[in-house]
Design a protein that fits this description.
The chain has a domain of 49 residues. The protein is built from 2 helices and no strands. The mean pLDDT is 79. Keywords: ATP-binding, DNA damage, DNA recombination, DNA repair, Helicase, Hydrolase, Nucleotide-binding. GO terms for molecular function: 5'-3' DNA helicase activity; ATP binding; ATP hydrolysis activity.
Amino acid sequence: KTFGMIDRRLRQALPHKSQKLFGGCSVLLFGDFGQLPPVFGLPLYTTQSSLDLADQGCRAYNQFTTAFTLIQVMRQSGRILN
């Protein structure tokens, strides 16, 4: 549902690009998408149909075709700063 709201708002804010996903803006997603399902609503991978914004968000999410998996922890690498 959140993706649907973001997509809809960006298309409104950028009417000259309203035919493009997210109003033509580049979008980066990061995090642990397999962590927990949403508290209210359906997970993105559900096969059940849902309401308008949730469907729009699901369609937007499914447009992401490239993923990079980070395998090395960088936060703890390097000098320790106190």
